[in-house]
Structure formats: C-alpha cells, structure tokens
From TrEMBL:
Name of the molecule in the record: Remorin-like
Family of this protein: Belongs to the remorin family.
PANTHER family hit by this protein: OS02G0117200 PROTEIN, REMORIN 1.4
Lipoprotein among keywords: no
Keywords, alphabetical: Coiled coil, Signal
C-alpha cells in the first residue's frame, strides 16, 4: 500500500493547497471590502458636499428674508414718521387758529 512518508507528504501538499485557497479567499474578501468602503466614502463625501451647498443656500435665503424685513421695517418707520409730522403740523395749525377739529375723539 502507501507508506507513511507518502501519506504525510500528500497530507502536507493538501494542507498547503487548502492554505493557499484560504489565503486567496481572504485576499478577495479584503479587496471587495476595500472597494465597498471606498465607494461608501465617495458617497459620504458627495452627501456632505450636497449638505454644505444646501446649508449655504438656506443661509442665503435667511439673509435675504432678513434684508427684506429690514426694508419693510424702514418703510413702516418712515411712514410712521411722516404721519407723526403731519399730526404735529395739524395740531400746530389748530393751536395757531384756536379752532378744534370737526371730529373730536371721546367727546359727547
């Protein structure tokens, strides 16, 4: 039959081939994992870029809204100032002439 030396040598060859296959599978697995991790990193970077662009866009919108609000406030303040000036002029006119307005507030 077979000698012990032949069986030991055959067993060593078989173990060596099995080890090579396992190493090959491990290398394949590591390569695939690295590719997936690289793809994931690219996707994350793309999403971060999109997020930053969207944040900038929203900040610009907020600044535009603030600017519009300030303009509207300025218009209201200017109108208020004009109305106050008109009221003061009218009051001065009535005081100078000694008359009272036709429409009096809170009187009987």
């Amino acid at each position: 039959m077979f000698s012990g030396c032949f069986l030991t040598q055959s067993l060593l060859i078989w173990l060596s081939r099995a080890q090579k296959k396992l190493s090959s599978i491990t290398a394949w697995e590591n390569t695939k994992k690295a590719a997936i991790e690289a793809k994931l990193k690219r996707i994350e970077e793309k999403l971060e870029k999109q997020k930053a662009e969207y944040v900038e866009k929203m900040k610009n919108k907020a600044a535009l809204i603030h600017k519009e609000a300030e303009e509207k406030k300025a218009i209201v303040e200017a109108k208020r100032g004009e109305d106050l000036l008109k009221a003061e002029e009218l009051a001065a006119k009535y005081r100078a002439t000694g008359t009272t307005p036709n429409k009096t507030l809170g009187c009987c």
